[in-house]
Amino acid sequence: MARRPYSSTLGSLAHATVVVCTGPFTINYTNSSFEKPRLEINPHSWTKAANVIFLDQPAGSGFSYAKTPEAYITNDTLSTMHVYHFLRKWLVDHPKFLNNPFYLGSDSYGGIVVPMIVHEIFNGNELRGWPHINIKVQIKGYVLGNPLTNTSGDNNSKIPFAHRMGLLSDAIYRSTKENCRGEYVDVDPDNKLCLHNLQVVDKEDNYLYSYTWANRRDVREALHIREEFNEIEWVRCNETLRSPDDNKTLSYTHSVQSSVAYHRHLADNNCRALVYSGDRDMVVPYLGTLKWIETLNLLVVDDWRPWLVDEQVAGYTMKYSNHNYNLTFATVKGGGHTAPEYKPKECLSMLMRWLANDDL
């Protein structure tokens, strides 16, 4: 495997889990307590493969903030433009990176906005604006992990996935499928049999350490967080973006329900894509991801096969193409939502091979 550190720039739309799993530091859970979490060097940091810009987006996520209440009000389309303008301004301030191959990456809900941002970058490149974001020259593209892409399709894939994983018996699955008629999200409230069948499973672990660490005063000072935000608690998921006040006014509107159309547009460009999913992810099951990839009608150039790390099966992969567009899909064996949290070594190996244009 050809390792080429710092030859590429990977822009990542990040939340806490992404940074802890792919950033240069991670939490040492063995030697940490909730009162005093300890950091350690992450041996599987994605910074070993590329220069990485971690961006908290939209304003209000992570330690990011806006100066007026109105500035927090946004949606998928506006968020896309904000990131695009940020990248242009960042490259003006750091011109030495202009010649680097540029990749944009995110996970989870980033599956909606990242294809929109990449599409906007291509549009901007055609207009020859300054700076020319280097995503259309050399090896370039986007990386999506456990991506929400088609809201309806991804959510409806949870029941079949749970059955395939042995979490639902054949009898319960058949009853649910029959009573819900394949629709497990927008269920008729009068369909009592369907509602009785549906179950939602969610699991959280280890995240309490990140709460304690991010709210420490010395951490905030090291990160140069503005003093006026000292009394504001850091949280992993800022629910105030959904309903910030008593009137339930939405700060963030989910204005795009599917980004599949943007993938179709990108398939007509000179572009590379890596889409990976933890094969134990119940939040965005890989079955839904495979389904929308199939709707792109790309040519299969490398059919379903295992990929290995240290001579062990790390997951399964397929490769698709459409002229100068290439899409690699990979599952990560034992990975949840998101895969690098559970399988950091395997995910770094996957990324490095893909950036080097090697087969997984």
What are the salient characteristics of this protein?
single chain; alpha/beta; two-stranded antiparallel sheet
What does this structure look like?
The protein has helices at 16-22, 76-93, 110-126, 151-156, 158-164, 170-180, 192-197, 207-214, 217-222, 260-266, 286-294, 339-342, 344-355; strands at residues 9-13, 25-27, 39-41, 51-55, 74-75, 102-107, 141-145, 252-253, 271-278, 299-309, 312-322, 325-332. An 8-stranded mixed β-sheet has the order 4-1-6-7-9-12-11-10. It has a two-stranded antiparallel ribbon with strand order 2-3. Strands 5-8 form a two-stranded parallel sheet. Helix content is 33%, strand content 19%. The chain folds into 2 domains: 9-150 and 206-355, Alpha/Beta hydrolase fold, catalytic domain (Rossmann fold); 158-197, no CATH class. By secondary structure, it is α/β, with parallel strands linked by helices.
